[in-house]
Amino acid sequence: MKAPLIRTFSYHCRQKYGMAVGKIPLDVGITCPNRMRGGCIYCRSASFTPSCLRSGDDIPTQIERGKLHLLKGRFRYYFAYFQQETVTALAQEKLLPLLAAVLEDPSCTGLVLSTRPDHLPEKLVESLALLIEQSNKDCLIELGLQSIHAKSLELLNRNHTLDDFLVAVERVKQYDRLQVGAHLIFGIPGESWTDMVQTVEFVAGLKLDALKLHHLQVIKDTTLHAMYLQNRFSLFSLEEYMDFLLRIIPLIPEHVTLHRLWSTSHPSLLVAPKWHVLAGELSRILQQRLTEQGLHQGCKSRVGQVVTGRTRLKQKE
Ligand code: SF4
Q: Hey, which of 9, 69, 90, 238 would disulfide with 275, CB 3.0 to 4.6 Å?
């Protein structure tokens, strides 16, 4: 396969599994513990919940609806994507059997568990690694970080620290069968380009398997929305964000799979920024700019030159 400019999730799956693999978002029906502490100021789960996902349905029903409405025959296989709230806050004695049942589906390639760094106890990670070993499937744990800067974590009301994140990363890395990734948000009020680039360079040095990158979006009726109405910060324009991506993508090692590069919240709940551009067009613009400027993921990475060469990317897996 021709080496891509960006290691997207789609490319990663085609390289690793020989085909495209979908994701089915699932909801175990719990409330994120951080909501008891006010919740993250930008978060409203309805803004990214697919319309076919009904939290009252049991997991098998959610999967069947996901196959029907999201895979739509385009994908034979899927990752069970526990994106809603903080899935690992569910009691282990309930969570592990639930995950084991999901993994029994032959068309399930593995799990993606989205969670907070302070909700990943050692015992759970150990049990999860065993489960994944026994099922011979894959599991990516996506840890919300958003920024390495304490002032930003405080402003966002994340209620965890960078150290919490680092402990969680090391906990997952003990197990070869588990993969670990991070969520980052760009455009947090008060952060400069230098702050954001520092976050990317720091995280790039952790040898993670995946990243999920977002520009900040203001969602209706969130705390961030109230701040926005008071003109307390500005947001990325499309042009600025493209320039920013051109700055950071070269810093990210080539082996890191980029699951997302921008937010795509429901238009009905999105206050700003409204770019009026579909994701496919964003991707086309970015690819064109990378090509024009002779850039690709990892071309300016200072991390592990040995593993970030383009030939190594092709050899991996
Ligand atoms: S930790 Fe995640 S789910 Fe919980 S409030 Fe923050 S962004 Fe939302």
A: 238
